[in-house]
Design a protein that fits this description.
The chain is of the alpha/beta class. The chain contains twelve helices and eleven strands. It has two domains: 190 residues, inorganic pyrophosphatase (n-terminal core) (Alpha-Beta Complex), CATH 3.90.1640.10; 118 residues, Diaminopimelate Epimerase, Chain A, domain 1 (Roll), CATH 3.10.310.30.
Length: 317
């Protein structure tokens, strides 16, 4: 069984690194730290490498141990969590150089790029998959591990409101609550707290919102100039794409933000309602994700990126 082989790889590895996707969200950070804490309980000393961690997740246990980079040139084992493709790994070189690789994920667009892959696209979050893995390995889910896991589940289910949320999701949350995990505090920190920079970006996003295709598509953007003017930090743009999706009648919400390294390249966040598959659209641009939430990187000016995206969206709405 795949999980038995993964356990064997972990037990035999002297050096382990845990990696996740670029612009990490709550599930990415939660999965990374939960895996770290679990492996420490197994007697391992893994590194977690995430170049930029959004401040909202600074409360998570183990956050202070996350590294921006490592002096280790080749780890015996690299574990990728919550990342659909090797191209999207932040710190991809550590994964490429590792002797052995493991991928644990819940994206339907996962390319199975590891030596050992455990992917369940039905799971509402990668943290949900890890909870099952830890149970299979008979690893005690402590309060700290539970806090990390629940952070990923809460953020990736939109606070338990997305369709992927199941009865088991609530049962696991209840179990963690009994262990002392502060569910309401996690929810408040991750879902109900907005930085000043996010507030300022929200105003700009709303002012620029375009409603297209007879109200079926919402499009908006932010630029590097916006980010600099409001002194935004990593993660301050999270959730802005949902503003468009929450409008009545909108089937596709598009939010693009300018790549910090290239003025003619934009990172696309897409959210959908109804039958429109966001992952299928983003796959056309080398991206991917989930049916209702996906992303990609597209070259061009704001108008050119919008035109490219709309060309594909018009085919499915």
């Amino acid at each position: 069984m795949t999980l038995d082989k993964i356990l064997e790889q972990i037990q035999n590895a002297e050096s382990i690194v845990i990696l996740t996707h670029q612009t990490p969200d709550g599930d990415a950070i939660g999965s990374s730290l939960a895996m770290k804490l679990a492996l420490e309980n197994m007697g391992k000393s893994p590194d977690v490498i995430v170049p930029e961690v959004p401040e909202v997740y600074n409360f998570l246990p183990g956050r202070e141990d996350i590294k921006a980079e490592s002096d280790v040139k080749q780890y015996e084992l690299a574990i990728s969590v919550d990342c659909a493709t090797e191209m999207r790994i932040d710190g991809k070189e550590y994964f490429e150089n590792a002797k052995h690789t493991i991928v644990i994920d819940h994206h339907g667009s996962n390319t199975m790029y590891g030596d050992f892959n455990y992917v369940n696209p039905v799971s509402p979050a990668c943290c949900d998959i890890l909870a099952g893995i830890f149970d299979y390995y008979d690893i005690n889910i402590t309060k700290d591990i539970g806090t990390c896991l629940l952070t990923g589940i809460i953020t990736d289910t939109g606070g338990f409101k997305y369709p992927a949320t199941t009865a088991e999701t609530f049962e696991f949350a209840a179990e963690l609550l009994r262990k002392g995990v502060n569910v309401s505090e996690i929810y408040k920190r991750t879902m109900d707290t907005m930085s000043r920079a996010t507030f300022e970006l929200t105003k700009r996003v709303m002012d620029r919102m375009e409603i297209l295709e007879d109200g079926k598509v919402a499009f908006t953007y932010i630029t590097k100039k916006d980010v600099n003017e409001v002194n935004a930090k990593p993660g301050d743009h999270e959730g802005l794409v949902n503003i468009g999706r929450n409008l009545s009648g909108v089937q596709v919400s598009i939010f693009i933000r300018q790549n910090e390294e290239d003025k003619d390249e934009y990172r696309v966040s897409m959210r959908t309602n109804g039958d429109v598959n966001a992952s299928d659209i983003c796959l056309m641009f080398g991206g991917g994700g989930h049916p209702r939430a996906a992303g990609a990187t597209v070259e061009g000016t704001i108008e050119e990126v919008k035109e490219k995206l709309m060309k594909e969206i018009k085919k499915v709405i």
